[in-house]
## 1
Amino acid sequence: MLRMLLRRLVLGAARVAIVSVIIFAGVELLPGDACTAFPEREAKGKLLENCREAQGLNRSAGERYFEWALGALQGDLGVSANGQRSISELIGDRLANSLLLAACVLVLGVPLAIFSMTIPEFVSATVLILVFSIWLGWLPGIVLTLAHAPASEFFPEILLPVLVLTMVMTAHILRMVRSSVIEVMAGDCVHMPTLKGVPYWRIVFRHALPNALLPAINVVALTIAWLLGGVVVIEVVFNYPGLGRMMIDTISDRDLPVVQAIAPIVATVYVGVNLSADLLTMVANPRLRTLHMRRK
């Protein structure tokens, strides 16, 4: 198992590196840069040359990427091209906000999913804003709290985003768990207790549900990674100052240092959560452990 873990870690690190290269190249191909992104700060002639020199944009793309990668490996994400602020400080506030949103959704969504068709989140978000903000006036429709504010100040502004994401996540996971339960209920692990006269509720909770949850582990892991990585659509709709909205804003600003810092963080979250799900599945399923030992 240790060998498998090391192999997965190496593959995960390689995936994060590839993502960082793709993101860097993608932003490089966009028209304009941090010095020409908006007309109000557009630079020309000598001013443009000085701006690009100050931002390091006059150097080759490869040189700038490898300089960033070397700093990132040492924990230095650099400074933002827009305002020259520390990227670690900028991302820290947004990441904390995304974690707050994800934690609230997970507390509500996972239990509901375990014990239809999914409506797209932008549709459910719009409907809930219309009903609870415009018609009833019970909850705010957008988040006005600043990114660096303490978590307690995001309530009740965070309630509608949490409700929308909970609906999306619950429908997705519930569908997977239901399909797994139906498949397991048709298997031998249920037929034998049924023939022996075991009560139905005990068959479901003692025999069917534990086996049915194993395939759902990866779905839950992907959902958690989706939440922790920043839910772009919801954060934009509700003006929520999370990591996903920050990525959109910095791409619009051509703020490559911040974009380049966010991408590996999101990729690392996905790789880490999926690795945890694989290990949890192996621990929970004796057959997978046996198969792994045979391969060794």
Note: The radius of gyration is 24 Å.
## 2
Amino acid sequence: MQNKKALIWIFAVLLTISAAIYQRLTGPTHPKRTQSTLAGQTYKFKLLRSTDSAGDCPIAIKVADPDVTGRLEYRIYPQKVDFTGVDMVREGDNLAASLPHQGMAGKLEYKIVLKKGEETVALNDGAPIVIRFKGAVPQFVLVPHILIMFLAMLFSNVAGLFALFRIPSLKMMKITLSTIFVGGLIMGPLVQKYAFDELWAGVPYGWDLTDNKTLIAFIAWMIAWWFNRKAESRNWVVLASLVTLAIFSIPHSLFGSQLDPATGKIIQGMLLPYLSIF
């Protein structure tokens, strides 16, 4: 029994780390990795897609060749207006310029065009990069939130595997429910408040996917707890664990809070492009 538990914990840790890395790296706020070739030289870049800068957002890319110049073009997202362009300034090996500060959850889309002689190249194959502005979240709020949510994912996986292999899982189920509540429904809104000046943007107030993922996971474990009040029901624990693993594997910040530039109100990214056509 002890060997089986140890193997389950090891597998659960690896599964949780893998899901967390996948969620983070595939999210729309993680820097966009791209590369471009100019005058026979290939350059690799990481382009910002999220910033908590209190002022304008600096954009800098490393291009050591002093003969290469750059131009930064941007516009408010998702408005379909002409791009505004500024020349990038060389700072040693870097080309740098700044994007104008936006309010919390405001977004810009930007492009960078490099030029050497008569040859030009647009980074990311010319596709604009969308960057979201947010408020700075204090470490004493952000770190506990991340840690507790990671533990919630871990405990959820352990509880599900315990139930799957017919190991008593009630204690682990209760720990999972508690950590999701504290990390997601208490610490999560605090992070949201600092970042976007809203405590909760999920149902029933909105469709923020991050908030709603947390809510779904909590409801799934509440259902599992309800059916395990009097006697252990392993199937519900396994189901809650699978639901939690699935929703927390969705890229982080996908369809997150977004400022509607027309109204100044924060709504969700999945809705704004459609509302903007009316």
Note: The chain has two domains: 2-27+137-275, 32-133.
